[in-house]
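#struct-pred
JK: can someone run the complex with NAI? inputs below
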Amino acid sequence: MKIAVLPGDGIGVEIVAEAVKVLRALDLKFEMEEALVGGAAYEAHGHPLPESTLKLAKEADAVLFGAVGDWKYDKLERKLRPEQAILGLRKELGLFANFRPAICYEQLTHASSLKPELVAGLDILIIRELTGDIYFGQPRGRREAPDGAFAGQPEAFDTMRYTRPEIERIAHVAFQAARKRNRKVTSVDKANVLETFQFWKDVVTEVHAQYPDVELEHMYVDNAAMQLVRAPKKFDVIVTGNMFGDILSDEAAMLTGSIGMLPSASLNERKQGLYEPSHGSAPDIAGQGVANPLATILSAAMMLRYSLDQEEAARRIEAAVKDVLAQNLRTADIYSEGTTKVGTKEMGDAVVARLK
Ligand code: NAI
Ligand code: MG
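RT: done, structure tokens with the ligand placed:
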């Protein structure tokens, strides 16, 4: 098993170091190789995603990614900006399934924007399709409206589309993920209005025939947005298209409190994946040793689960994180009165100590 370790910029360097420490503490056999990405790679090689970094990522079973970006690169032309590295990796690795778990840890229940009783024990997984939908559909553009009440007026248009294979593969991913959880999938669509999502619903229903042990429910996206804040614990796995997933995953993230706790994964058909915290490089606190490394440590746990087939090790890390929170250790972003404030390194050390 080979892991490409790409810390990137800002706090990426600090938090990835802690995740690597945690991985090493597991006594599993894998090789980890580090490379520059983002602004760090631009400084050294003049490009945010050098060939050598891309090659390492392609050869690895999984990529552990920190974060990229800094305000000082804002004036660079778009293709040299640090953010291009992550877009390039997604494209080159063919990553089509984005996993975002929303877990509300018992000790952080008060940090949620919802009432504690609604989120206590929350553990749901949003799976967003990444390659299709209205974000990439052609044709798109601007023109003079050819018809309608405003014919002749300037207009803009995009095209929503999904091919059968794109829906099939994300549906398989969702049903398989549900098997490792509570065996329930909610497929979110807008089949009542959109042909694309009637097709989505039909194909997901077809694929479901191969997973009789998993419950499938269909829900319109407007209702799903409502249910997520009304009774989020009723969900287990949510699978949806690119745009609905973009919106619902941010909504679900806020149920859990802090961005410093949220891991993510993006997978391709070979189960090769890129694992990263949901937050960015946090230039405002970079280099101070105060960033929360738990989102990255939990991303490493997802990597063990989804790309390296080490479910047991993944659960060990997740349990260690819960224990550390139960010990009342907190980085600044999740600190509250009566708890013990620790830095990035101390938090990583505490997780390692619990693992042992
Ligand atoms: P950000 O997520 O980096 O920071 C937002 C706020 O959350 C900041 O106040 C930061 O200090 C705090 N924060 C983030 N992660 C934290 C952690 N682990 N522990 C404690 N506090 C944490 O988003 P922002 O400020 O909008 O962007 C900063 C840079 O990051 C930009 O250059 C942006 O383009 C880049 N970015 C990169 C991403 C990636 O690498 N995938 C994703 C999002 C932003
Ligand atoms: Mg978003």
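RT: quick notes.
Residues 246, 250 surround magnesium ion (ligand 2) (CB under 6 Å).
The domain at 123-255 is CATH 3.40.718.10 (Isopropylmalate Dehydrogenase).
JK: thanks, will look after standup
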